[in-house]
């Protein structure tokens, strides 16, 4: 493997590790946990897409497949944390008091953006799988 390929592989794995960390923190941290079901679903989708991209573009060679197994296990642990919190979470995060309300159009825009996010993420996974 040439130097550029190795550098790309390291960067992809670092970004995937950061997203897995975000998923685990959002799923299990009482203080920094996700505030809504939508946010939890999006952070899990981001982690799944990044793992699919890493697996497709920078597959681990030989014995390094153990790193892939660890990443998949961490993803499963993160999703399990979200599942355990799911019933206690609202669908959309409550509005913070220090931010001005954008009314119904702000909520609808956020939901539409999240829907596009979910669709693109699912499409990427389907193409790379």
TrEMBL record:
<keyword id="KW-1133">Transmembrane helix</keyword>
<protein>
    <submittedName>
        <fullName>Uncharacterized protein</fullName>
    </submittedName>
</protein>
<keyword id="KW-0812">Transmembrane</keyword>
<feature type="transmembrane region" description="Helical">
    <location>
        <begin position="6"/>
        <end position="26"/>
    </location>
</feature>
<feature type="transmembrane region" description="Helical">
    <location>
        <begin position="64"/>
        <end position="86"/>
    </location>
</feature>
<keyword id="KW-0472">Membrane</keyword>
<feature type="transmembrane region" description="Helical">
    <location>
        <begin position="38"/>
        <end position="58"/>
    </location>
</feature>
<feature type="transmembrane region" description="Helical">
    <location>
        <begin position="107"/>
        <end position="128"/>
    </location>
</feature>
């Amino acid at each position: 493997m040439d130097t550029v390929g190795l550098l790309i592989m390291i960067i992809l794995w670092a970004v995937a590790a950061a997203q897995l960390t975000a998923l685990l923190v959002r799923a299990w941290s009482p203080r920094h946990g996700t505030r809504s079901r939508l946010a939890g679903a999006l952070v899990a989708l981001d982690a799944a897409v990044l793992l699919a991209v890493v697996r497709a573009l920078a597959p681990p060679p030989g014995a390094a497949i153990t790193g892939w197994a660890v990443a998949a296990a961490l993803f499963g642990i993160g999703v399990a944390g979200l599942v355990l919190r799911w019933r206690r979470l609202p669908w959309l995060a409550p509005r913070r008091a220090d931010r001005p309300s954008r009314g119904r159009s702000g909520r609808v825009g956020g939901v539409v953006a999240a829907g596009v996010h979910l669709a693109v993420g699912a499409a990427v996974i389907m193409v790379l799988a």
